[in-house]
Amino acid sequence: MIKCAMFDLDGTLINTLPTITHYVNATLTKNGFEGISLEDCRLFVGNGARKLIERALSFVGADVPRVFDKVFRDYNAAYDSAPNYLATPYEGIRELVDALFECDVRLAVLSNKPDLPTRLTVREFFGDRFAYVRGGIPGEPLKPDPTVPLKVLSELCVSPEECAYIGDSEVDALTGINMRAGLRISCLWGFRTKEEILHGISPDAYPELASSPDEILRLIKSH
């Protein structure tokens, strides 16, 4: 029986790709570099803000070691000032969250995005629906490392077998495998294509694929 639904945030619950691209480009421009496209940014996200800025700087030909610290500080300061600018929940997500909440499924968000904007975004769009919200914290491993997901489950008193892990990327697919989640779901409306999500994963470890929030609800209820 599934007692907890643990969600990724960006690309799963909320479309933040325009938000992230805006702040990356504002920061690059401020520091004298050209911007990147929405499609470029889509390919750079997923492994946390540090890796995002490293990839963006490399893409525009910057001397990454020389400029990284300042650009990273500027990016975080800009993003933290208004983390929900241009961000919108995906269609049907609020209804999914409400339905799971009403079914007494414990809800959690675990993101590789920095902790502060993660918390601010979840609070603005979902209020107090989520029992646990956590973003990336310096010094702690990011997904797909299972350390933090398992810590979250321990604090919620839920076993991995009782957890549905839901995300939109190859990072999330690997996270579900590494934490041995009882149900692993990859949504197809986010930042990655089906082929990108499944790349490098053994077919016998493929997650369930959902093309709508209603399918996520059905899968969880069936378990």
Round the Cα radius of gyration to an integer and report it.
17 Å
Number of strands: 8
The largest pleated sheet is described as: 6 strands, parallel
The whole-number mean of residue pLDDT values reads 97
CATH class of the largest domain: Alpha Beta
Tell me the domain tally.
2
Q: Please estimate the helix content.
A: 40-55%
Q: Please identify, by name, the CATH architecture of the largest domain.
A: 3-Layer(aba) Sandwich
Describe the structure.
There is one protein chain. This protein is of the alpha/beta class and 223 residues long. It folds into two domains: 4-15 and 87-222, Rossmann fold; 17-81, Orthogonal Bundle (DNA polymerase, domain 1). It contains ten helices and eight strands. The strands form two sheets. Strands 5-4-1-6-7-8 form a six-stranded parallel β-sheet, with helices on both faces. The radius of gyration is 17 Å and the shape is globular.
Task: Offer a concise description of the structure.
It contains 10 helices and 8 strands.
Features:
DNA polymerase, domain 1, 223 residues, alpha/beta, two-stranded antiparallel ribbon, 48% helix, 6-stranded parallel sheet
Helix/strand layout:
Elements: E1 4-7, E2 14-15, H1 17-30, H2 38-44, H3 49-59, H4 64-81, E3 88-89, H5 93-102, E4 106-114, H6 115-126, E5 132-136, H7 147-156, E6 163-167, H8 170-178, E7 183-187, H9 194-198, E8 208-210, H10 213-222
Parallel strand pairs: 1-4, 1-6, 4-5, 6-7, 7-8
Antiparallel strand pairs: 2-3
Helix pairs in contact: 1-4, 3-4, 5-10
